[in-house]
Amino acid sequence: MKAITHFNKSILATVFAFAFLLSVTPAIGQTSITTSKGKTYHISSTSKNGVRTYHIKDGQKDFRIEYEGDITLSDDDKDIVAISRGGFIEIKKSSFGTKRRILIHNENGTLVKKYFVGWSEKPYSPDGKKWLSEILPEILRTSTIAANTRVNRFYNKGGAKAVLKEVSSMNKDYVKSAYIKLLLEKNLNTSDLVKTIEFTGEYIKSDHYVSQILKSNQKAFLKSERTTTAYINATKNIGSDHYATSVLKKVIEDKEITDSQLATLLEITKGIKSDHYISQLLKNIIDSRKLNARNMSKALDLIKRMKSDHYKVSILKKAMNTKGLSKNNYNQFLNIVHDLKSDHYKATVVKVLLENKSANSLNTALSIINNNIRSSHYMASMYKKMVETYNLSESQLIDVINSAEKNIRSSHNLSSVLVALSKQVNRSSEKVKDAYKKAAKTIKSDTYYGRAMKAIN
Prior knowledge:
By secondary structure, the chain is an alpha+beta fold. It has helices at 9-22, 124-141, 147-168, 173-184, 190-203, 207-216, 218-221, 225-234, 241-252, 259-269, 275-288, 293-305, 309-319, 327-339, 343-354, 359-372, 376-389, 394-407, 411-426, 430-440, 446-454, and strands spanning 28-34, 40-48, 51-58, 61-68, 71-73, 80-83, 88-95, 98-107, 110-117, 120-122. It is elongated. It starts with 8 loop residues before the first helix and ends with a helix.
């Protein structure tokens, strides 16, 4: 009577993947699976009005399970001892013309068990009972049938440890996830929460299910430093950038995490490959809290690792508005700007930097132009931004003029910068005007030279 043992267990497990999905919403599903040996199984599943049906067909073999209600099992998981009022479970299998069926239902509070071979009813004991005892363990470890009562039973006997031990024997992540979520509904102490989080990260391979668990119980997970640390570490096993980011963003939103925990979070973020997702996380971090020098250094290191100038600059613009950057942070910032490939993005950073209106920002901007910008067009736009933003001192005017003369190769662009500077130059000493005239003389075009000289007194 070893009907289920001759049936491909991986196929049975796949059927119960439908069970988990259909336990959420009514649905109809059909699929076909071809095994490594070339056998094809046709699987269909339905869920309607609380009744769930799973059907597998393979040539001469046909297997079907249909059930409704809450099912309670024996302590050894080899028998069904109770079904909620009005509920039932029916298991059918036919193979090469031989049909077997078990029907168990609640009839006015009494559990009725029937066993059929072909169209004939046979005594449930011993053959029917034996067949059920053979197929139930595999069904239970590959489906969520009776999950609630099983979690309660294991928890009452041995606490969270007993539940997690049972879950470790399962090989389907969706089933493990369902059991862990039921366990987390218990009032777990800090130690059990930490064990459950660590178990989730270690034993569940699906990024989807790990992220679901970590996000769904965030309040409990983040209630202490120990659980928060375990929570953050659990994300190390999430390979998907999308799912890892969704979990880490949840942590960032919690104002209670310490600087030390944030440092760990930033270290974990190094495992995220997508510039898009890294930028999302860093924006959230910079917007939500003040970073100490150590964590700002880690954030800037993450920015430097990005490949995309676009994403680098989008975060740099936020980081530049952070007050109290350390000397090391400032040097990291300059190194990142130096690494930018596009003069367009370098100019974007410089213009944002100049909006701080500090002497230090002006000197930094001139340093970036002198050492990192090649395009006369973008250099001109930055010099003009300086004129618009600052009421330049005479020494600053001379520095800007000398920088423009040294770096701009285009007569048109150099002329336009000098004209932009002329209003402030005209209010300055002869020393400044001499620097202006000297720069104008390097303009090769008579037309553009004339424009620059007409602008000066």
